Amino acid sequence: NAGVMQNPRHLVRRRGQEARLRCSPMKGHSHVYWYRQLPEEGLKFMVYLQKENIIDESGMPKERFSAEFPKEGPSILRIQQVVRGDSAAYFCASSPDRASYEQYFGPGTRLTVT
Amino acid sequence: DAKTTQPTSMDCAEGRAANLPCNHSTISGNEYVYWYRQIHSQGPQYIIHGLKNNETNEMASLIITEDRKSSTLILPHATLRDTAVYYCIASLQGGSEKLVFGKGTKLTVNP
Predict the structure, then answer these.
(1) Is the link from the previous residue into A8 a cis peptide, with omega within 30 of 0?
(2) Are B32 and B55 in contact (CB under 8 A)?
(3) Residue B105: which of B3, B40, B9 has the closest Cα?
(4) Do residues A114 and A13 touch, judged by C-beta distance below 8 A?
(5) Strand partners, A92
(6) How far apart are alpha carbons B1 and B99 in whole angstroms?
(7) Which of A27, B20, B68, B103 is deepest in the core (most CB within 10 A)?
């Protein structure tokens, strides 16, 4: 069973461009979480999604950021008009259902905004 | 979510037990104590969790005090590969809600 997959692993964008980060959860997992880790800081929750639904987006910045988890395909975290402060590692995690206890994390996408 | 406090850093000799403390004095009765670790900017890795009883798995042991205000993660025979940041998290049920990560403890295992 393959683990959580994220791509790209490294992404470089110029200020003002769009960044799209993809997350494929583990097989059979229908819950996806996105976390952001700024340089030298801890991980911060961004958003929690189930298939086609956003369950908790309390950690998402109000502007420029959006997330989706369609019925088919990976979850996408989209950042529009990136700024230097968006440079961070973005981690995706998945879990099988509401009764599970642990979240399985992917290797992360390192976003660098130049 | 209950706030947890951990020492910033700890050192341990290779082959010895590493005991990582965590205070969670405001934890509620139905919150679990979770431990995750992050090895050098990789994705965090689940280690263990518990509610009231002590727990053990192939990676570690978790000792929770009777009043549940603190806990200790024990790595019985630390190796160099255990060098990581260890996070103690209080959560209602980690598989269905966000995890609130603090700053964690940077454990350095020395040869």
Answers:
(1) yes
(2) no
(3) B9
(4) yes
(5) A34
(6) 9
(7) B20
Q: Which of B 85-104 lie inside 8 A of A, CB atoms?
A: 87, 93-104
Chain A residues in contact with B43 by the CB 8 A cut-off are 4, 91, 93, 105-108
Measured between CA atoms, how close is A101 to chain B, in angstroms?
4
**Residue B41: what pLDDT?**
82
Nearest Cα residue to B39 out of A108, A101, A52, A49: A108
What pLDDT shows up at residue A98?
Answer: 67
Please indicate whether, in this complex, the C-beta atoms of B41 and A89 are within 8 angstroms of each other.
Answer: yes
**Residue B29 confidence class, pLDDT cut points 50, 70, 90:** confident
Contact A33 B98 (CB under 8 A): yes
Of the CA atoms within 13 Å of residue B14, those in its CB half-sphere come to 6
Mind listing the pLDDT tens digit for each residue in A35-80?
Answer: 999 988 889 999 999 998 999 999 999 999 999 999 999 999 999 9
Q: Which residues of chain B lie closer than 8 angstroms to A91, CB-CB?
A: 43-44
- Contact between A48 and B97 using a beta-carbon 8 Å cutoff: yes
β-pairing verdict for A31-37 and A43-50:
antiparallel
Name the 3-class secondary structure at A85: helix
Q: Note the pLDDT of residue B94.
A: 60
* Chain A residues with beta carbon closer than 8 angstroms to that of B45: 105
> Does A74 contact chain B (CB < 8 Å)?
no
Q: Which range scores top for mean pLDDT: A43-47, B39-43, B99-103? A: A43-47
